[in-house]
Amino acid sequence: DVKVTQSSRYLVKRTGEKVFLECVQDMDHENMFWYRQDPGLGLRLIYFSYDVKMKEKGDIPEGYSVSREKKERFSLILESASTNQTSMYLCASSLFAGGNSPLHFGNGTRLTVT
Amino acid sequence: QQQVKQSPQSLIVQKGGISIINCAYENTAFDYFPWYQQFPGKGPALLIAIRPDVSEKKEGRFTISFNKSAKQFSLHIMDSQPGDSATYFCAASSTTSGTYKYIFGTGTRLKVLA
Fold first, then answer.
1. Any idea of the CA torsion for A108, A19, A71, B38, to the nearest 10 degrees?
2. Share of chain B above pLDDT 70, in %
3. Cα(B26)–Cα(B3) distance, rounded to whole angstroms?
4. What chain A residue is nearest to B89 in terms of C-alpha separation?
5. Average pLDDT, consecutive stretches of 10 residues, N- to C-terminus, chain A (114 residues)
6. How far apart are the C-alpha atoms of B36 and B60, rounded to whole Å?
């Protein structure tokens, strides 16, 4: 089974802090994604990466950046955390390119910015 | 045109009843329609998916019905069980556009009463 592991289950950070969310997958998947989940808004794509050192903006990239130095690891960075970034963050991976490759999600990191 | 509209937002069903969740899309380039199931504290997981060349797909108690002309698809859960209580997301993607993006609906929280 594919395992996508997010390093923290809960995080509490202060406004203005730099925040790192880490994600590791163990199945040699090409593609990795960061989503944000908010009630009533569903899952919204922040950034994705289809190869090491490659990244593409999703639908809501403002205030975020990403890093993919190794194939198995994809980091989401909040350069200066703000209260409107309080949310559940979900990392996902998929095996191959193409819009029908199933997404495998981690269990999420609930971030609170105070 | 990129939206996927999902309804209802929440649903309560008696054990043994039928749960129905509906989704509608606008973009005719979408050609892959998965449903994801998310239990509390877990990430979403692929439940069932359909392509528009068929009008129905059934896996156990879960059925997707697809109406291409109306640009609508729905998830039916037959003989609903308390263990089906979860949040369900529909999604859509294009397998020919060269992108890797899924567009998710806003989610339906299903509660099945024992």
1. 10
2. 96
3. 7
4. A42
5. 89 97 94 94 93 90 96 96 98 82 94 98
6. 15
